């Protein structure tokens, strides 16, 4: 079973960059797809990006395409989210999550497909 913990959040001005990291424990990390989600105050948790267990497939929410990049290093048990050209509307708590199913063929956007979640890291973008 995989456990995850996020780091790298902080305060940044609009147009700036942040790099979020998700450290995973467990020997089976490389067999699980991983996702990043975010939740702003008063809003539902929403999908941001995900990557397949092999790293071959990625998917992004439309508003972050071209600005955010998800990647994974299975040797280090780590998933990262590089966030560039940040906007005030990117302000939220960002969560890392592991798919509940090993070796899933496709990537999933819905939170219900993810069984393990981190505590979240705050990202604040000032205008």
Structure description:
The chain has 127 residues and is mainly β. Helices cover 0% and strands 53% of the residues. It contains no helices and eleven strands. Strands 2, 4, 5, 6, 9, 10 and 11 form a seven-stranded mixed β-sheet that branches. It has a four-stranded antiparallel β-sheet with strand order 1-3-8-7, with no helix packed on it. A hairpin with a 6-residue loop joins strand 4 and strand 5 (46-51). The chain is globular and about 40 Å long. The model has no long low-confidence stretch (mean pLDDT 96).
Low-confidence region ranges: none
Task: Tell me the series of helices and strands, N- to C-terminal.
Answer: EEEEEEEEEEE
Label the structural class: mainly beta
Question: Which range best describes the helical content: under 10%, 10-25%, 25-40%, 40-55%, 55-70% or over 70%?
Answer: under 10%
Count the strands?
11
Strand content: over 45%
Mean pLDDT: 96
Distance from N terminus to C terminus (CA atoms, Å) equals: 40 Å
Q: List the quaternary state of the chains.
A: single chain
SSE layout and pairing:
Layout: E1 3-7, E2 10-13, E3 18-25, E4 32-39, E5 46-51, E6 58-60, E7 68-73, E8 78-83, E9 92-102, E10 114-117, E11 121-126
Parallel strand pairs: 2-11
Antiparallel strand pairs: 1-3, 3-8, 4-5, 4-9, 5-6, 7-8, 9-10, 9-11
Short description:
The protein has no helices and 11 strands.
